[in-house]
Amino acid sequence: MERVWYYSDNRELVSWLQATVQGMLNPETASERIAVLEAAFSREGDLRGNWTQKVHAGADEFVLTWSNLIAPLLMAHDRPEQLPDRKYGVSVVMIPALEAELTLNGRKAPGRVWPCKYDGQPFSTAALAFSESWREAADS
Fold first, then answer.
1. 89: Cβ–Cβ under 8 A, 6 or more apart, which residues?
2. What is the pLDDT of residue 4?
3. pTM: predicted TM-score of the whole model, two decimal places
4. Can you tell me the distance from the alpha carbon of 48 to that of 88, in angstroms, rounded to the nearest whole number?
5. Where along the chain do its domains lie?
6. Beta strands in the chain (DSSP E)
7. Is 78 helix (H, G, I), strand (E, B) or coil?
8. Residue 7 CA, distance from chain mean position
9. Torsion from C-alpha of 16, 22, 24, 30, nearest 10 degrees
10. Closest CA to 63 of 94, 42, 37
């Protein structure tokens, strides 16, 4: 069995997400038995070109870099009541990247980004999410 844990600087937020949005999206992530490891986060870059997010936890350092960014898209699922298993709607600004990289302690993970389309617009399998707002369905 795989070991699963969360990196966070806010344990209360992790608990809330597990009990609400994240637990609804993937019930396996709702378990309170998943460890929450204390982490520090930093970022650098420019959303017109590239963005780097760093996660420091104990002796580990993750570096995630998105580059060759393309035009952002507003994604909105405004009617959660149309999907019976989804009691939350979401709005989020997504900034797709045509290139991305993940390293753990300086060692690059394998894989690559794939271009695609979302609602007829250029998109990719790697994107930054900003201004993510979740809201409960009116009938919940």
1. 76, 77, 78, 79, 80, 134, 135, 136, 137
2. 79
3. 0.83
4. 31
5. 1-38, 39-136
6. 5-8, 35-38, 40-46, 50-57, 60-69, 73-77, 88-104, 107-108, 115-118, 121-124, 127-136
7. coil
8. 12
9. -70
10. 42
